[in-house]
Design brief:
Length: 344
């Protein structure tokens, strides 16, 4: 196969702002040949805008003309469409999260294994330069002990799309925003097995009237997803994670923090710093990095396309992203039952 024929299922904001431009920037390896969206007008507009030749009303028909698909639908449909594509012999690149439930993720993995086709999830934080350098620096910090994660936005509940629709998305800030940082942390840690999760979810703030919100208006009366989450996670290797995410925190400013303290040193990802006791003192090596979101999207697209063509290995493997959903599901369950969730 000299060039990958790509199809899109769902051509909303993330497809048009990140994924389609990324594929179009590598015409020697991939060609977008078809799109499908429940909103037919939007599909036709996207096809015209990006010069994509075919528009389908049924995604099953699209499978016949492509080698791979990029799925950018609400979370509820990730598993259903991914499995259908894999069973049709098509590689799958699916927006995050992998699916809403662990059971759905396991069926996706089974379909991928049975079909012998690739399945990857769009956790693009792995492709950021700070993340990639931090991954290399993990060799210098020794055995990890404590990971600290904060993904906090100051009053930025998404007031568009279906982000606050629990039926379509499965949750709120955790499954939409916090999932990126869970995935990044687990990747840096080489995927330790979680053994116990204690979590709490909140939405009291977003259910009160007359909200100040920087990202548009939403209906506080029907708001039924989490806007703030905290959790404590223990892993089989004895390390632990202190995790917090929010769409609507009452804080001074947005905060994104991922740091890992190890036996021999520590890594802070945003900004990238490496801390070590060295030469009889405490050393901090700071790295100045200006992230390019377009470059991050391109690196992600290149890895998937080249993996489909047999030229590379997937950086974001589905067996790894399943663990993200396991933890998300456990946090929600722990909050509902007011008890810790233990893994066998």
């Amino acid at each position: 196969m000299s060039k990958l024929r790509m199809g899109f299922i769902g051509v909303g904001g993330i497809a048009q702002s990140r994924h389609i431009p990324a594929y179009l920037s590598m015409p020697e390896k991939v060609e977008i040949v078809a799109v499908q969206d429940l909103n037919q007008a939007r599909a036709e507009e996207a096809a015209a805008k990006f010069n994509i030749p075919q528009v389908y009303g049924d995604y099953h028909d699209l499978f016949k003309v492509v080698d791979a698909v990029t799925i950018c639908t609400p979370n509820k449909f990730h598993a259903e469409i991914s499995i259908a594509a894999l069973e049709a012999g098509v590689h799958v690149f699916c927006e995050k999260p992998m699916a809403i439930t662990v059971a759905e993720c396991e069926r996706m993995l089974e379909a991928s294994d049975k079909a012998g086709k690739l399945l990857s999830i769009a956790y693009h934080y792995r492709f950021m330069e700070a993340s990639r350098v931090a991954k290399l620096a993990m060799e210098d910090i020794g055995d990890p002990l404590v990971t600290r994660v904060q993904a906090l936005r100051r009053r930025k509940v998404p007031g568009w799309g279906v982000f606050t629709n629990k039926d379509l998305q499965g949750g709120g800030s955790l499954i939409d925003w916090g999932c990126h940082f869970l995935d990044l942390s687990l990747w840096l840690l080489d995927g330790p097995k979680p053994v116990e999760v204690m979590g709490s979810t909140y939405n009291r703030l977003s259910k009160t009237p007359d909200q100040l919100n920087d990202w548009g208006a939403f209906n506080h009366e029907t708001f039924d997803v989490d806007d703030h989450v905290s959790a404590y996670i223990r892993f089989e290797d004895g390390s632990s994670m202190i995790f917090e995410c929010s769409w609507a925190a009452n804080i001074k400013e947005d905060t994104t923090h991922v740091s890992i303290s190890g036996v021999d040193g520590g890594v802070n990802v945003f900004p990238l710093e490496i801390h070590q006791p060295k030469y009889g003192t405490f050393m901090t090596n700071a790295v100045t990095i200006e992230e390019d979101s377009a470059q991050v999207g391109l690196l992600q697209a290149q890895n998937f396309v080249e993996s489909c063509l047999g030229e590379a290995e997937l950086i974001c493997k589905p067996q790894e992203t399943l663990k993200v959903t396991q933890i998300i599901e456990a946090i929600y369950s722990s909050s509902e039952t007011a008890s810790s969730i233990k893994f066998s």
